Structure formats: structure tokens, C-alpha cells
Amino acid sequence: MVLNFKMWAGLIQNFNTVILNRSPSFLALAAALVLGAHVHGVQASELPKDSVDSIMWENVAKQFILSDQEGSDKIVMDDRVQVVAPKIAEDQMNIPVHVDARGIENVRKIVVIADLNPLPKVLTYRPEKAAPRLSFRIKVEQGTPIRAAVLDGKGVWHIGATYVDAAGGGCSQPALAHSQNDWVSTLAEVRAKIWRSPAKEFSTLRVTIKHPMDTGLADGIPAFYVEDLVVKTPSGQRLGRLEIHEPVSENPTLTLFPKIKGSVDHVVLSGRDNEGNLIKVSVPAPVQSSHLQK
């Protein structure tokens, strides 16, 4: 019997206590067996050719895509998944990225990955009652492919990617907040606005959260970042959910496109950071508004 990646991962998880008490050579053997095993029954040689020719593509596919229990082993490179970012980053701590997967039907989630970051996983977005697109800013440690893995309703992964050239050190520099003595006093403050038009199916929601988003890679500064954000209607219907990771930029600004219907006059943003600090705010959703309004 050939064990696939999920089976190996399950065995190792079940015998975690035993493994942790073994020698380093045993751990190395276990890791080699996992990496050398079939991944969801797919050999590395069967992965589609990477559109940006990343040296990390095989590892990224194994670690962040094929290991995902919600998806299948089917991966396709798909031009309909658009990842837009500058070709050359002016500021490696604030690189704007826009992901648009509206060409894919029944999007269940979008996973964003920066291949060559020391912490590659950027965020996971579940656009439950929202358009499958979003904008955000990230930190990078060096020039890297930035890719979006989009999971559709049939369990197929659709991959889009672009390459951003950048100077080094974006992930290992301390947040600017630490140069201010009173930064804690504004921690988790939220500024948000919704632009809504009856003529459009989806509204625009822009959110900025005051937070240092520390990666844990700067000397003496532990990881400290917003890790969860949910958008709901007043009745509790979830419009979308973000699982956020360390590479998202300081004071994260996120743009989402929720479907806000009828007489709903506000939405509720709630979340937390990895230290348990809570975020909760009500954002007005006027029936009609303009992007020119402030």
C-alpha cells in the first residue's frame, strides 16, 4: 500500500508524543518519509509547470495546497486568477496586492502565499457572501513570487501568480510603531467605510486596523499580529472571513467586496490578534454612497 501525504501526516500526528521523544536522526527520517511520499497521490513530477518558474513551487504546493484537507489533488495554472502587484517594490514593508478570482465559479477560499518569505503564508480569505477578490499590503524579505491559490466548489485549485522584485529585510525589520512610546494606546483602533450602490451587486468595504503586525523575526520583538477578521450582517449572517498571518503589513488596510442587501444599514467587523486583543466595530452601510465622499 502506498501512503499519500494526508495518511503520513495523520500517522505522524497520532504518534506525536512518540516522535518527540525520538532522536534527531529519527525525526529526520520521519520528515524525509513525509516529503518523499506521494502528495494526495500526486508525484512532484505531476505538478503543473509553475507560471512564474519559482524554485519553491514544489514545496509551496506540498505545504500549503495539497496538504489542505478541503481540496483535492487537482491543481491548474489559471489566468483567470489575477494577482496584481508592482513589478518593483518601492517599500518592501508595504507592497500593494490585489487578487481577483471572479472568473472562477463557486470560490470557497483564496490562499495567498509569498514563496520566498521566511513566513510564506500571507492570508486565507473565505468570500462567503462577497465577491472573490480583495486588496491588501504585505511585507517581503526579498524579491519573491506572490501567488493566490483559489479553491472552487469542486475541490480544484486554480493558481495565479506574479513576481515582485524588492530590496531585502521587509519581514525582519521592527514595526514603525515601536518608535512611538504611546503606540499601545491606539492598538486595534479601526477605521472603516462602505461604499454602496443599488445598481451594483457588491459593495466596497475598506478597513484599516492600527496594529504593528510584528512577524517575530526582528530581534527582541515577538510575533504580534491580527489573525482573524469576520464581516457579518446585524442578523449574524457571515459575509466573509479572513485568516491573517504575519506578512500582512503594519496597520493593515484591507478592501473587501461584500454583498449587502436591502435594508441592511450596517455591518459588524469582529476579530482578534494572536494575544487575544479583541476587535469589534459597527460600520454604517448607507443605501447609496459615493467614493468621492469622505
List the SSEs and their pairings.
Layout: H1 5-14, H2 16-20, H3 24-36, H4 57-66, E1 75-77, E2 82-84, E3 95-100, E4 109-114, E5 121-126, E6 133-138, E7 144-151, E8 157-164, E9 190-195, E10 204-209, E11 226-232, E12 238-244, E13 253-256, E14 266-273, E15 278-284
Overview features:
9-stranded mixed sheet; alpha+beta; Immunoglobulin-like; disordered N terminus; 294 residues; 3-stranded antiparallel sheet; 4 helices; globular
Report on the structure:
By secondary structure, this protein is an alpha+beta fold. It has one domain: Sandwich (Immunoglobulin-like), CATH 2.60.40. Helices cover 13% and strands 31% of the residues. The protein has four helices and 15 strands. It has helices at 5-14, 16-20, 24-36, 57-66; strands at residues 75-77, 82-84, 95-100, 109-114, 121-126, 133-138, 144-151, 157-164, 190-195, 204-209, 226-232, 238-244, 253-256, 266-273, 278-284. It has a nine-stranded mixed β-sheet, with helices on one face. The protein has a three-stranded antiparallel β-sheet with strand order 2-3-6, with no helix packed on it. A hairpin with an 8-residue loop joins strand 9 and strand 10. The longest helix is centred in the N-terminal third of the chain and has 13 residues, at 24-36. The N and C termini lie far apart (63 Å). Mean pLDDT is 88; it is low at 1-40.
